[in-house]
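Researcher: Re-running this chain for the archive, since the previous output was lost when a drive failed. Same request as before.
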Amino acid sequence: MVYNQILNTLLCSSLSEMRWQMGEQVRGLDSQAESRQQLLQDVADFLRRKAEVEQEYSRGLEKLSERFSAKIRGSKEHQNFRKDQNLPSPLNCWYTILNQTRQASRDHGALSEIYTGHLALRLVHISEDVGRLARKSKEMEQQMQDELLKAISELQMAMKSYQTYRIDCLNAEAKLREAERQEEKRGGGRHSDPGGSPGGAGLDKAPRRTSLKKVERLLEKRQSKFMESKLKCAKARNDYLLSLHAANAAISNYYVRDVADLLDCFDLGFHLSLGKVLRTYLAAESRAQAAWQQGLCTIEGAIDALDPLGDKSRLMEANPAAYCPPLCFDYQPHEGDEVSEVRAEGPLRNELVSRFQHLQSRLNAITLETDEVNKTLKATLQSLVDLLAAEEPEALDAFQGCQSTESLKSTGSDAGGKQALAKRRANQQETESFYIMKFKEYLSGRSIQTKLQAKHDQMKEAIEKGENVGSRLPRVRRSRPPSCCHHKLFGGDLQAFLESSGQAVPLVVESCIRFINLHGLQHEGIFRVPGSQAQVSEIRNAFEKGEDPLGDGYMHHDLDSVAGVLKLYFRGLEKPLFPSDIVPELLATAQLESSAERISHLRALLSQLPPAVLVVLRYLFAFLNHLSHYSDENMMDPHNLAVCFGPTLVTVPAGQDAVSVQPHINEVVKCLIVHHEAIFPGTSQLPGPQYEKVMALAEEEYWYEGAMGRGWHEERFTPQRVGPVGWRRGERGNNRGLVPPIVLPDR
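Model: Regenerated structure tokens:
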């Protein structure tokens, strides 16, 4: 326990440091936005004041220049500028303009009109653009941070599961060793008195034989339990390692690429727009003051030096604590576990190969989608750059014709010029919105692609290594004996069926969920893609007879058909899992604002359900929550699962519009999936079976061929019923030599 606490403390410490970095990044974005807003405000104030003091000529311009120069001399940016001349390019332009303003010597009516008209409006537009882009960039940054924290949270959950199963494995091994010692002690006692009296040997023979049989059965039982725990531990370790590599890949992708791209998104159009305003200012000054040509060339050079990439690099270099990627997470072995890589040997190989194939298909699809989005993104960016860089001839219309004040006012307020500007701005905002949407898709797709690629590489390496260690033939399963009950399964009353059959969770629910857990957690579109109607009917009929048709192996059944049977069972219940009298209260849950209020409200509602039904609901939603953790591979996040199960579990009240009500039902089901641990009572409050994330295979035999030799290895896990709680594992057989596979008879 102390070791677990140390590991969790280390992980929490790293997570806290990353949260601090993320907070610094968000605050840095806000600070940058405020700085630019202040910069734009200063420029707009400068132009307005200059237009007011144009008539005072040199004296007014000198006072204006001195005012803003004194303001920035005491700033931090000014001190850095004096040290290393490494200012952001927009601020450098601003300094150049102030220096040139000190040389202003003439009053010009056109300048006054341009300063107070077109340029002021453009600065307002840029300020609006900066605020809007800063807000959207911040939202995307927070979303990417949430996704990163979600990946780390999944890593924590996988590590906890791995630690739990590792402890179980160690406990089972200790019990096995104890049973072996008892066996050795019994064996030593049996041979210690070879010369005893015949009469005494006859009296003790039967009790001793019974005792030896008990010890042998105990040894077999604990051997079976140890192998089961060891297999679960291996699977949990694999999930932990995959989550570990995915989390590290997501962190690296976020800090190395996403952060820089988000800064690019924040800078979108700012330098171009500001440069266009300053160029307009330059053109006006050039026409009004030919004597300023030399000074204006200096300003032009500063404007040409506007450098988005350079400014981004300077910003990141100036704040290394916020933008430096953290160290990768290291694998933390638990309780002396020496395995530090994903394994694909023995019974794990087929499952990992199947998962690898699904993941490879998903990776190819997401790679293609991301590439297409990237192409669209580049084309949209070029269109947006062209719109931002387009010339605005009407901005200098004030210099045409007569230079009187009246002519300038009439020319500057031309309706046609304003309409053209409004049209260009509408096109810019429309293109910008489309760009932001595609940029968001690209970031999300690239993040998923990075995590899938990390898992893909690890699984590929494990499978290639596993080929050199050994292989096995398909497993042989024993069929379960049919169960007998006197109530209808599909289309029947769930509570009555449970009472009649003695099952805590219906066999159809347990078997379908177990099948998907073993073979379909990574299956793309699970529960969304319909299965074969013939297979669905075949599986359903078998369950109706009390049989378990899913015990004959993975190759005989389609995953989508098994998922369809599970949905069909819940959809066809005579009494829905959520009775109609509590549906209005369920719908009211979707109107609550905070998650805490929703959880509290749902917990109170579910307490009204019968305990037997609540056990089934707890089992189902724990499984759906686990399934959503593989959404990068199966594309079924909590929202998509809620869309599939909302109509199945909750019936729209009579008299209400299904189109408007169904989204609220789906939102409630999504809340149940995401927060199932906080909503449903635990086993201490509600006894009954709970869903296990890591499930072992049922009774199987494997053919091993590797460095240790070759032969049939029989693993017998005979499921047995123990009252209403569920299935328990039976005893495991011994290793055998070169014996062909057989189907063991039922005991």
